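Comment thread on ticket #2218

A.B. wrote:
> Attaching the input chain for the structure job we discussed in standup.
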Amino acid sequence: MPEHDTGWIKEHGRLVRWRLQRVSLSPEEIGWYGCWQFLAVWRERPELRQGKVTKESEEYSYYCTSAAPGQYSAEQLLPTIRDHWGAIENGAHYRRDVSLGEDASRISGPKAAQVMTTLRNLLWGLFELQKLHGQTQAHTFPNWRRKLTGPQKSQLLTRKTS
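C.D. wrote:
> Ran it. Output below, let me know if you need it in another format.
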């Protein structure tokens, strides 16, 4: 039986239900320094088309936390987990997908995908470094990318940083 059940709620135009169950333990019991609880989250989401359920999806996620067992209620933990993933989706993932079209990439091999991820991270890092050191007037990554000339791109990769 779940410790906390949100019931059916509507978010982003669809129905979703979140359930949380947790197990409290000591770091010595599990052998992980700082881990005081394991959390299991079950998310259920029916796909609705014209008011009818066409498909149901279920997703299970597992977490560990350094929060002491009595520190937060289950009702407080669930929004924290949801906010954490919301920040990832709206932060790093959004900027990588919108600026670099990562989701549209047709690369399927794990090694090639890892190389492309490394190259995308390098590009973002170079942009952030140039912004930090006042070496670009561009305020957005797409604008910076469009304005770079071939020689400037080569110089970025060969320049020594101080």
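A.B. wrote:
> Thanks. Noting for the ticket: The mean pLDDT is 83.
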